[in-house]
Amino acid sequence: MTLSKFYLFFILSGISLAAQGQVTVKGQIVDGENDDPLLFAQVALFEAGSENTITYTQSDEQGHFSLDTKKGTYDIKVYLLGYENKKISSLNLKADKDLGLIPLTSEGKQLDEVLVQSSTIPMRTDVEGLVITPEQNLANVGGTLLDILRNTPSISVSEDGSISMRGSSGTNILINGRNSSLSQNLDQIPASAIEQIKVINNPNARYDAEAEGGVINIILKRGEDMGTHGGAELTYGTRNRLNTGARFNHTTTKYNVYAGYNYRDWKNRGERTVFRELYEDNELLNQRTEGNERQQTHSMNYGGDYYFGNNIISYQGVYNSGLQRETNTLYSRMEDSQTDELILQYIRENQESETDDVFDNALIYERTFDDKSRELKVSLNNSYQNQYKTQNISIYRDASELLPENLNGQEKALTDEKRYITVVQADYVHPVNEKVKLEMGLKSTLRKFDNDYKYYQLDSENDFVENPEISNRFLYKDQIHAGYFIYSRTGKKWDFTLGTRAEYTHVEGYLFNTDDLNVHDYINLFPSVQTLYKVNEENIFKFTYSRRIDRPTAWRLNPFPDITDSLSVRRGNPNLQPEMINSLELGHMVNWEKASLTTNLFYRHVDGVLDYITTVENGISYQQPMNLNTAQAYGVEFIGMWDISAWWNVNGSVSMFQSKVDGSNIGEEFVSKGFSWNSKITTDFSLPYALTLQLVGDYESPEIEAQGRDYARYSMDATLLKNFMEDRLSVSVSVRDLFNTRTFGGYNQSSSFYQEFERNWESRIALVSARYNF
């Protein structure tokens, strides 16, 4: 139905009602346990005994609703997520009628649905981890998924965008619960497109066993409220940064369609420095890289749901297209530490352009049952990414200035990378009785990553000639076939879930240049345990255990070197084996009237831990991943939420943990241990003139690596928000990294060298944003 026909329908309906005698039915939707009003409940009026919708609405902030119709006999149905559907049958409306209180019954809360939460802050905790609602955190306005994760407890984001949880860099990032190529480009997913983020520190057998740190599930917006809704936003910031987008959805009792578009034009610049000393060779190396970049991204997500009988068929699609341009100028100078004699100096200017296209499509079938706790879901997902990069490199040997007359070398590189991911999955939940539930499922994931890298050098005849010793093509394939079974039992005091997941893995890594094929096959079992003890309504204890795996990624396996910097080379290792992880967590959740506190004690043991080891050969440092013996981490985490007053609330977390890395299989110098802690605090103030001020503070202490430490990182963001037009329009002004302190740095050290690095990227950014919802 077009929009014009939609409006015409209601105009004609209004005329008809006036002619036939209009009546009004109203009521108040409340929680059946405490009579608290329930807002946003969907109330629909049907012809009696049929599925033909007459009209619908939703309850307001006090739970009230009102529907106008002609005299007759109707069925009324009430829907609200987290509650059982309510039906009032054969209601004879001869005059206006007030139904009074309509109580809804909360759905039976299973183990993974017990929440400790506060209504005014952007996160809540449950037995598995955290649930984040990005729109309630003002610091995310105009940002991307990476900005949200930077403000999320338990999560750290490094300088290159990689994610770690509680000190572990192995995380499984899902999009709408599925593996997707979108997870390779988190900085291209706008914050405004994200509905919710689930951070699962200790996942059960329902989830892939992949990932040491846990699972991060990104839920994109789809639109579920009945009626027609939408919104638009515009963000403009320093250095002409721009982020704009719009979204729309239309939902009835029969179908739901939605679409969203976002355009992002982001500019940045910064500097990276490296200092290295080789003890035996008496060499001191100082490097400085000046960089600037511009990233333009178009993002679209779209889809729909169709409801027929007890069936739902859904399609979910995402398309991202990005163009990134970078210029990095590297200044290098090497001296003799004893004589200060100049050994070498050069400048390397790299002009890089990268296009990135990602398609993600999913077809989902769901079967609903009269018993709401019974579920069947089958999905087919296909994801494709095409990334093409060109690099034009100018070299100025024996020069300290970037002058045309000093140019004496040119190189060029082309990278064509394609990623294919196909996932087929079926999940079934069967309630045996009111207390016992069985879950089972099958999943197959097929991935192929094809990286073709060509490297050219300018010869004496001014022709670019390919260098076969550097050019390489690496093809990575894997298949992971899994099945799981979970037994859950819930009681008055105790809930527990026991699960086992079996995974068969087949991995192939083929290097075309050398005709080398590496094949790995292995089968693993991954048990999981989750228990919950409810002392009373305010206090809950939990215990979780899981065994997991962290498989080496394709680029870690590719043995060919990355020589962006000829003095610091990164290369992969085709002989890497997966990490095996055992993880335990003991927690306590307490919920007061205006506050809550979650305390988690955690322990993680990793066999075959993967870490980057730096070695120096002939004055060149090589960084390569290797399997070390073990790694251990244990600590405590506090997550608190407090509505201090009507005008002030605060939420945040503090994590403290001791880490130990044992790399004695490589050398005794690769054994390291240390204490680390981090904290993230968000506080909101309601100010006069309906203004809201939000401050977000972040601190991460130095953290150990096998050969050194990362330095401490800390920053603060500030946002001021004003709402207009009954909260449909909001305008905000924000400054990220208010004190310009967000830097990345660290050092590596062995018996033969010391290396230190620091990166200062432009992180203090001022933004003005406007958002309108209808």
From TrEMBL:
Presence of keyword Transmembrane: yes
GO CC term, one of those recorded: cell outer membrane
PROSITE patterns in the record: TONB_DEPENDENT_REC_3
Keywords: Cell outer membrane, Membrane, Receptor, Signal, Transmembrane, Transmembrane beta strand, Transport
Domain TonB-dependent receptor plug, residue spans: 131-215
Cited Gene3D superfamilies: Carboxypeptidase-like, regulatory domain (2.60.40.1120), TonB-dependent receptor, beta-barrel domain (2.40.170.20), TonB-dependent receptor, plug domain (2.170.130.10)
Membrane topology designation: Multi-pass membrane protein
Signal peptide segment: 1-18
Subcellular location: Cell outer membrane
Name of the protein this chain belongs to: TonB-dependent receptor
Major subcellular location class: membrane
Statement: the UniProt record of this protein carries the keyword Membrane: yes
Lineage: Bacteria, Pseudomonadati, Bacteroidota, Cytophagia, Cytophagales
Residues annotated as domain Outer membrane protein beta-barrel: 367-772
Cited Pfam families: CarbopepD_reg_2, OMP_b-brl_3, Plug
Entry's family note: Belongs to the TonB-dependent receptor family.
